[in-house]
What does this fold into?
Amino acid sequence: TDLPRSPPAAAEPRHASPAAPRRLREKLRTAARMAGPPARTAPGSRQQVQGGESRAQPASAAPPARETRAPFRFDYERFRRSLRHPVRGGRPGEDPETRARRMKIKEMMKFAWDNYKQYALGKNELRPLTKNGHIGNMFGGLRGATVIDALDTLYIMELEEEFQEAKEWVEKSFDLNVNGEASLFEVNIRYIGGLLATYYLTGEEVFKSKALELGEKLLPAFNTPTGIPRGVINLGRQGTRSLFSPCSGMSWSWGWASAGSSILAEFGTLHLEFLHLSELSGNPVFAEKASNPQPGPLHPPGVMNIRRVLNRVEKPQGLYPNFLSPVTGSWVQHHVSIGGLGDSFYEYLIKSWLMSDKKDSEAKKMYDDALEAIEKHLVKKSAGGLTYIAEWRGGILDHKMGHLACFSGGMIALGAEHAAEERRQRHMELAAEITSTCHESYARSDTKLGPEAFRFDAGSEAMATRLSERYYILRPEVVESYMYLWRLTHDPKYRHWGWEVVKALEKHCRVEAGFSGIRDVYTTTPTHDNMQQSFFLAETLKYLYLLFCEDDVLSLEDWVFNTEAHPLPINHTDFKA
Ligand code: DMJ
It folds into this structure.
């Protein structure tokens, strides 16, 4: 999803996480990491909850993670041996044009990185016109969003020197000791996702330890009556509140979200990363407290619980609305979208199943059912024959697709690949048609870049009809779908379309000191928005590069990409060491 970059200023602290005594929390953590007698509180004791919303539950101890007294250690070498393909590198005998195109994209990445490094290193994003840095308000005092987002792309592209520069910044300057309001979703997909992916690719401990430390800071967001996390979290350590940091570890709903609700694409886009946090730490707390059947204030349930809540609540026509109350577990209003606010929830269902080596049948069923409802109620064909996915507002269709919704071509193709024959064909066709519609939204503009949203009403076909929807901010979703469709069909048109995007980016978005978004795709002399988004380095350039790589570079048999294009490994359950 993609959310307004306004501060959660209007949000009152509706929910306060419990102030767990620091010593007890540390004991619980140690107990979960090490075998040995788990820390226990008195049977039936109740923890005091601030804020009045959370149910007080009997506190029980966190279970030991392993049946051994040795501290848990993830076996990285074994993991590397489990991969079926090399992770990067060109292959001998490839077509020179493909190689040249890939090298061009690598040069774009170097240009984007070098300018960020020169003018904005340590800030979150580069402002390429004014040649300075942007901090923004999504990351709660964390810095270096572009560094973390770029790490795995630099590594994959074999930009060794630049990768070392980024790594050195993480080692020396990436400070997690911050105290500010962050988007749980954004910190998870960009920072946790970027750090995890880089650890898996390189085996460098610094990335793992930073990911785990940051992951723990996100846990208090789950402290709600239902265990559905809130969208905004103060990254100060829970239990360290003082006059100077009164909100440490507290969580809020976004001020703009209906009635204190949590957003489907936010709480639904944690699963992949949180399962890996548990895998790498040996601590079940991120996934769920497996042997703690009654989660409570000191034992907020992990991400697995989110599905339980979703499976309990009734879905209108089988569809998932975008706003859910973390207090009651019911929908707050009926807006359904496969674009912003809904998008990556669906993506994470199918990818959870793939990441589990197709063992997580619950996720697969939720995905299949959701897609069936979407096909039935939201997929439409325009008068001109273009297939699109409309939005749904309490039963009324809004005939609009956001740029964000264009990821769905790739997602549906990925799911189709693993479906039974009849479904496979139907879904592959649907994926190709949606991707083609998204390509039309680019092809029908003067810049050959697509608008933020396009409509199919009042005679319009795949074009923005409102001034406020004509901008392009270097988003990846369309090239993301090209990459999946290319890998799954090898139809050369996807590489052709990807190359058109490269040319358009060079022509309209490349400026003296980096790449910038543009304010209007329907003019050949667009003005720039002065922002090089971190996802341009994490996603747009990575997907373009992969489009011109052999299929075994970050093979889809070994990796799933999180929603920020950070590759996380599939758990090959049949691998014998
Ligand atoms: C990225 O941060 C992620 O792809 C997210 O899922 C949606 N928005 C941006 C890119 O457009």
In short: Residues 76-290+298-569 form a domain with the Glycosyltransferase fold (CATH 1.50.10.10). The pocket of 1-deoxymannojirimycin is lined by residues 1-2, 344, 404, 475-476, 535, 539, 563-564 (CB under 6 Å).
